[in-house]
Amino acid sequence: MTPERRRAIFDRVVDRWAERGFQFETSPIFRASVDDWIEGRISVQELKQRYSEFLRTQYHRASALPLTGTEL
Q1: Position 20 in a domain
Q2: Is 46 a domain residue?
Q3: Closest by alpha carbon to 31, among 39, 67, 21?
């Protein structure tokens, strides 16, 4: 698959999310992994693994934040 084809796939996914009122992940860290997939440097399976790790990292960072009293 060409980088152009991968870019078109990614753009369609982002557009579909937007049509449904969702924002696709905008983190530069995750987007760098998307670019690696688009350029063919990693497989889609590796992209999924990186995204899972990214989400775990974000969850742990968020859970480590002190409560401010406004979360309820």
Answers
A1: yes
A2: yes
A3: 39
CA dist., res. 5 & res. 25, Å (int): 20
Give this prediction's pTM.
0.74
Residues 6+ apart with CB under 8 A from 58: 27
Query: What's the pLDDT score for residue 71?
Result: 47
Lowest-confidence segment of 7-11, 12-16, 66-70 by average pLDDT: 66-70
How far lies 45's CA from each of 12, 21, 26, 35, in Å?
Answer: 19, 26, 20, 14
> Which range is most confident: 22-26, 29-33, 55-59?
29-33
Domain that holds residue 7: 3-61
Tokens representing residue 52 in the block = 């899972």
When divided into structural domains, the chain yields a total of 1
